[in-house]
């Protein structure tokens, strides 16, 4: 008879299992999201400093002011995809640490800049750091999060990219109320240093994957975009038909054409242009880009309008736009449900129409517009933005096979930052040109809006009122131009999205191959290999070629 357990002997109990992720893993989400918030705060907070910069001892011209605002975003956007490839190849944690170090260095240089050239250099260094931070945070977050928790973690990260702009206003307002414009950079630099330490201590190392750095393609993309923006920003000052402006446009288009040609010929391109033969991908990237054009057009002029036309203090200005977050969050939460019911095409085009409506309504504001009505207008715009973001991301991801989820992340990020830079450049150029044409002769030349209003103050209330009216009229023109751009893009998104996704936003099953059976990432007849243009880890995301981010990449090496 087999022995029986004594009643006095307690039964064996299993080893306790943790109810949640280990303490080190719990730090991943807050540290990565805080890093994303930091780089996005810098995008928006500088707009609050425009009046102070305009009146500062640096004496920037209108075009120099635009370059100060845009230098960070231009470098950020241009380097985002190459920076993702650097992180894939040399280690995501190392890339994040390098990015935070560069961000801190650039903010410090900006805080002590004695002139415009040094300030521009500081802004560019900060932008290079931000480009390394953004894709590395998403990649680390995906690899360190359990599959069951991954969707919510990614949603939180995505929301941080949008909320960062609003937080920039909330932080910038109090800082600039009590400190000069240099204080904005002096406050953010230590935050970057603290996050550097937290990243080094708390974040895990992630396996590397093979990724092509494609230096030729990277240089062509960044310089081409920079040349086009030079034409947009300098057009009002130099004249749209001047040799330098036309030369900038011609050089930019030639460099971007060379980038496309290089991508078609290269064995491992940074970004294979054939990807954009997929209408769903084109629609998604264009929708995200144009949504950020509209949002950052608002961010660029908002502080100037509230301070110059409404007479708000910089502190009140910083908090006055925060309710915009209500529309953004509500739109984002609604978008997820609506995409599941009606598909990405319907939701994204509806959101873009709402952005265009918000921009048109903003073109109606003037010195007599009540603040509650202003809030209605900006909430309409922000709700549209909230609808577009998840819907367009769905379109991009649905257009690519699962193993290229990282490329989708990189394209999403690049479209966001390119849109931010274009929104500031286009709106700022229209604003400057129109304001100069409307400015009363007594106020003198419009070297900057702030200087013109300062001069008008000294010339009496009549000249001041006419100058403010010239500013609000110019602002209205800028909003209408951007609204028209959004409407044209909405029509293209609607056409390109037709048949690209199913009724519930799912891929139509053709995402894995190009028309005619050609594999993306290589020319016809050549077997595809993982590259920066085709790998799943470019700019963050799941490891290639497996759709499961936890699976080991075939060419992965030691974690970094």
UniProtKB/TrEMBL annotation:
Membrane topology type: Multi-pass membrane protein
Record domain Major facilitator superfamily (MFS) profile: where: 28-501
Cited SUPFAM superfamilies: MFS general substrate transporter
Subcellular location: Cell membrane
Compositionally skewed regions (Polar residues) per UniProt: 526-537
ATP-binding keyword on record: no
InterPro entries: MFS, MFS_dom, MFS_trans_sf
Sorted UniProt keywords: Antibiotic resistance, Membrane, Transmembrane, Transmembrane helix, Transport
Compositionally biased spans, kind Pro residues: 11-24
Compositional bias segments (type: Low complexity): 1-10, 540-560
Transmembrane regions: 27-50, 65-87, 94-114, 120-142, 154-172, 184-203, 215-233, 245-264, 285-303, 309-330, 342-362, 374-397, 418-435, 477-496
CDD domains, alphabetized: MFS_MMR_MDR_like
Name recorded for this polypeptide: MFS transporter
């Amino acid at each position: 008879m087999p022995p029986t357990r004594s009643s006095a002997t307690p039964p064996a109990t299993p080893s306790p299992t943790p109810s949640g992720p280990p303490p080190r893993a719990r730090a991943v989400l807050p540290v990565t999201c805080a890093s994303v918030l930091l780089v996005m705060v810098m995008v928006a907070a500088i707009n609050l400093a425009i009046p102070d910069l305009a009146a500062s001892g640096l004496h920037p011209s209108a075009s120099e002011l635009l370059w100060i605002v845009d230098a960070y975003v231009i470098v950020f956007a241009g380097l985002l995809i190459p920076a993702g490839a650097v992180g894939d190849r040399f280690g995501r944690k190392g890339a994040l640490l390098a990015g935070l170090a560069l961000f801190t260095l650039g903010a410090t240089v900006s805080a002590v800049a004695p002139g415009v050239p040094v300030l521009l250099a500081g802004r560019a260094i900060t932008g290079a750091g931000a480009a390394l931070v953004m894709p590395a945070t998403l990649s680390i977050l995906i690899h360190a999060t359990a599959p069951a928790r991954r969707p919510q973690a990614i949603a939180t990260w995505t929301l941080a990219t949008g909320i960062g702009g609003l937080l920039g206003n909330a932080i910038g307002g109090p800082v600039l109320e009590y400190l000069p414009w240099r204080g904005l950079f002096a406050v953010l630099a230590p935050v970057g240093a603290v996050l550097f330490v937290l990243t080094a201590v708390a974040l895990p190392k992630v396996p590397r994957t093979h990724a092509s750095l494609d230096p030729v393609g990277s240089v062509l993309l960044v310089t081409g975009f920079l040349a086009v923006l030079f034409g947009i920003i300098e057009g009002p000052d130099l004249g749209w038909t001047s040799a330098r402006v036309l030369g900038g446009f011609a050089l930019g288009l030639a460099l971007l054409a060379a980038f496309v040609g290089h991508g078609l010929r290269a064995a491992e391109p940074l970004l294979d242009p054939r990807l954009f033969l997929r209408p769903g991908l084109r629609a998604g990237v264009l929708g995200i880009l144009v949504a950020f054009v509209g949002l950052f057009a608002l961010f660029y002029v908002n502080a100037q309008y509230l301070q110059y036309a409404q007479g708000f203090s910089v502190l009140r200005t910083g908090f006055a736009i925060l309710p915009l977050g209500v529309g953004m969050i509500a739109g984002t939460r609604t978008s997820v449900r609506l995409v599941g019911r009606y598909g990405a095409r319907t939701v994204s085009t509806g959101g873009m129409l709402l952005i265009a409506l918000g921009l048109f309504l903003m073109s109606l504001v003037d010195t007599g517009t009540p603040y509650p009505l202003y809030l209605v207008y900006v909430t309409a715009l922000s709700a549209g933005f909230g609808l577009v973001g998840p819907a367009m991301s769905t379109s991009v991801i649905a257009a690519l096979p699962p193993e290229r989820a990282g490329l989708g992340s990189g394209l999403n990020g690049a479209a966001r930052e390119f849109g931010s830079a274009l929104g500031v450049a286009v709106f700022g150029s229209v604003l400057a040109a129109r304001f100069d044409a409307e400015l009363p002769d007594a106020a003198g030349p419009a070297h900057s809006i702030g200087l013109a209003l300062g001069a008008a103050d000294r010339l009496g209330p009549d000249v001041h009122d006419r100058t403010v009216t010239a500013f609000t009229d110019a602002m209205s023109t800028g909003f209408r131009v951007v609204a028209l751009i959004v409407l044209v893009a909405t029509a293209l998104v609607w056409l390109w999205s037709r048949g690209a996704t199913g009724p519930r936003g799912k891929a139509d099953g053709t995402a894995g191959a190009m028309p005619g059976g050609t594999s993306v990432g290589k020319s016809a007849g050549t077997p595809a290999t993982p590259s920066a243009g085709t790998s799943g880890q470019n700019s963050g995301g799941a490891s290639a070629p497996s759709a499961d981010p936890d699976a080991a990449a075939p060419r992965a090496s030691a974690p970094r």
